[in-house]
Amino acid sequence: MNILELRNIKKYYATQKAVDDISFAIPQGSIFGLLGPNGAGKTTLLRMITGIFYPDSGNIFFEGKKFEPVKDIPFIGYMPEERGLYKKMKIGEQALYLAMLKGMDRHEAMKKIKDWFVKFEMQSWWNKKVDDLSKGMSQKLQFVITVLHEPKLLILDEPFSGLDPVNSNLIKDEIYKLSQKGATIIFSTHRMEQVEEICDRIVLVNKGKKILDGSVKQIKFDCKENIFKVGFNELPKPFENNVFEIVNSKDTFLTVKINERYTPADVLEQFLINKSSIISFNEILPSLNDIFIKKVEDTKLARQFEEV
Ligand SMILES: Nc1ncnc2c1ncn2[C@@H]1O[C@H](COP(=O)(O)OP(=O)(O)OP(=O)(O)O)[C@@H](O)[C@H]1O
């Protein structure tokens, strides 16, 4: 079952196709990465998923039914990249006010806020103003406010920006816990190593178009380039062959790219013929960062923004 499905969504600003016929589905319970370079159309997509903007055309489905912002919004938590807190309002009062706006009753909201403040060691902040918080502290507060009402769909735009490693881990752990409890998470970021670690599925957009869609594992598998890392007791002397090319040599390891039509067994055979003492042989899959850069570069010249 998909918690969210976008079908042929288009959104144009004056002269730009910010989102140009994008379709994808997000399975319930997944941690989903929405990726793309600056200006790709991610924020525009998120604003449509959260009912802030309407698409110019296309349809959005939430839990199988046509998305109705007024009805469905209570089930969605959105932490935008530009944080939206009242700077002069006291933190405790603000959390309570925003929780009640999401439909929680005062008593329940108060209890949940206190629990989260204890968990995040924020008890002493209650009477402070947002103005008095550092960037990382207001980030933690914004996260708590976003998840307080236990949304089914949690949308986090760059949730770790401004956080130190300890607080990043704290929030990461909470994201995993919310996911285990059944929440679906959309995670938007430029930090590929975080996506690789956290997300199970991704969509990559560029210049308003979708250019990749699938599980992280499958995408890495599909983009692999027949590169293997071979470990030796002692590095062999270079020898002529048609089977592979050496792309890197470090310590007692060679990284080799297998030429077309040859297999890993052919590589091993070459080294055995050469009497090299192999101790390890592993395939190297590309990192999401490499895939991101390559796909974005590939489409860079292929498609400029078209005039509407
Ligand atoms: N209100 C607006 N009016 C006109 N053009 C806009 C508006 N908002 C965004 N755009 C344009 O639409 C395109 C997509 O913008 P969007 O903010 O959705 O990208 P993004 O992927 O979120 O970028 P970033 O990673 O930099 O936040 C960009 O070319 C941007 O200049």
Give a description of the structure.
- It comes from Ginsengibacter hankyongi.
- Belongs to the ABC transporter superfamily.
- Pfam families: ABC_tran (PF00005), DrrA1-3_C (PF13732).
- Residues 4-232 form the ABC transporter domain.
- The chain is α/β, with parallel strands linked by helices and 308 residues long.
- The chain has 2 domains: 2-221, Rossmann fold, CATH 3.40.50; 225-284.
- Helix content is 33%, strand content 29%.
- It contains 10 helices and 14 strands.
- The chain has helices at 42-49, 69-72, 91-101, 106-119, 135-147, 165-180, 192-198, 216-222, 264-273, 288-300; strands at 2-13, 16-27, 31-35, 57-62, 65-66, 76-79, 153-157, 184-188, 201-206, 209-215, 227-232, 244-250, 253-258, 278-284.
- It has a 6-stranded mixed beta sheet with strand order 6-7-8-3-9-10, sandwiched between helices. Strands 2-1-4-5 form a 4-stranded antiparallel beta sheet, with helices on one face.
- α3 packs across α4 (106-119).
- The radius of gyration is 24 Å and the shape is elongated.
- It starts with a strand and ends in an 8-residue tail after the last helix.
- 30% of the residues are buried.
- The model has no long low-confidence stretch (mean pLDDT 91).
- The structure holds adenosine-5'-triphosphate (ATP).
- Adenosine-5'-triphosphate binds at residues 13-14, 16, 18, 36, 38-44.
List the helices and strands and how they pair.
Blueprint: E1 2-13, E2 16-27, E3 31-35, H1 42-49, E4 57-62, E5 65-66, H2 69-72, E6 76-79, H3 91-101, H4 106-119, H5 135-147, E7 153-157, H6 165-180, E8 184-188, H7 192-198, E9 201-206, E10 209-215, H8 216-222, E11 227-232, E12 244-250, E13 253-258, H9 264-273, E14 278-284, H10 288-300
Parallel strand pairs: 3-8, 3-9, 6-7, 7-8
Antiparallel strand pairs: 1-2, 1-4, 4-5, 9-10, 11-13, 11-14, 12-13
Helix pairs in contact: 3-4
Bound molecules: adenosine-5'-triphosphate.
